[in-house]
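Dear colleagues,

For the upcoming journal club I promised to circulate an example of a predicted protein-ligand complex. I picked one with aspartic acid because it came up in last month's discussion. The inputs are reproduced below in full, followed by the predicted structure.
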Amino acid sequence: MKVVKFGGSSLASGKQIEKVFQIVIAEAERKVVVVSAPGKRFSEDHKVTDLLIECGELSLLNLDPKEKFDAVIERYSSIAEELALGDEIIHEIQNDLIERLNGNKSKPDRFMDRLKASGEDNNAKLVATYFRKRGVDASYIDPKEAGLLVSDEPGNAQVLTESYNRLFSLHERPGILIFPGFFGYSREGEVFTFSRSGSDITGSILANALKADLYENFTDVDAVYSVNPNIVTKPKEIKELTYREMRELSYAGFTVLHDEALVPAFRAGIPVHIKNTNNPAAPGTRIVSDRKYTNGPVIGIASDQGFCSIYVSKYLMNREVGFGRKLLGILEDFGLSYEHTPSGIDDVSVILRESQMDPIMEREIKGRIMTELHADEVKIEHSLALIMVVGEGMRHNVGTMARASKALAKAHVNIEMINQGSSEVSMMFGVKQVDEKRAVAALYEEFFVAVTV
Ligand code: ASP
């Protein structure tokens, strides 16, 4: 059997839901269907999740959320109208949303999670209603009753391992199961959502729990591209890549799949197939454990902005036992997570997402590093972009780093930092944000356009 997940743009209108229906019924193995909330119909449109967030925020400020509430209901109503579903489902959705808005606000982030989760929960009910109307045996599955248990971290929940055994019993249910993505329940029975775009994670969890043969993830592009199509026009499509390659790429800006969504499928060895709802005949991209390294060392180039580096130098740092631990300990005290730590004998940089810090925190961190670690110098540099050059083939090829740095030099991009992951699946270049696009285009040219060895 297959677990099939559809993203927001695949469910944004009645017309899209009809496509989803056709895709699901085309293969009897497509038994579990994970749905997102309705997404954008056109580029200036609003995602239902964003409307729900705005609605919740107004309500927390004791302001009237009516306009946003109406906008959410209007999205479901227009879908229901297009699909001739009748009013009953819309009343159900309306009442559900009113109940959530009138719920306990003493813990605002939990209140927000309950509202956000309603986007997928109500959409799953609506989709199940439509499938039944088309004469198919389909039912909405309540994640609470099915046993999808998650940690109690608002907006950032993690699946609890006991979920997997519980969810296995979904096999006993007949017909097509429509499962809402993006959230689960804590052991205490409260709703918690994954981070944004987390319906991909739900699909992967279900694929693992149900021991599916395949996890199909339907989105709105024909394939995963080797580079951001907003930077390079018509980039090469990737036919097949490994879990590790996809994890590296999605971490650094490939938004096709949530970067945490691969782990459950990977652990169970279930291949993931990215496909296009609007063009299901296209071959798509397969994510697998092993692939043949036929097309040079690099499979994709990703980049992401919004990083900063904390540079610390101290003479004889290499001789000082515990320096790294103490440095990272200071960051831990501020609740900061870090991404990379390139280092030399007397210096180290810690790369972080800069949205985690504010100027006051920065000053305190600098002060503590100077006084507690007796550093010679501490510098915080902002507005960095990280570029990841990814490919398992790098392990078997000589000179990839040389080619990359030469290409960057030719494009007059100053490399602020270099880090090669120990797994040799990726190379990271830190550059100034203003140089990001030029750098990515130069690397693409080198590895995909120029003649490869
Ligand atoms: N609807 C949620 C979001 O917009 C989750 C998802 O679409 O996967 O983030």
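Two points we might discuss: DSSP finds 14 helices and 18 strands in the chain. The mean pLDDT is 95.

See you all on Thursday,
B. R.
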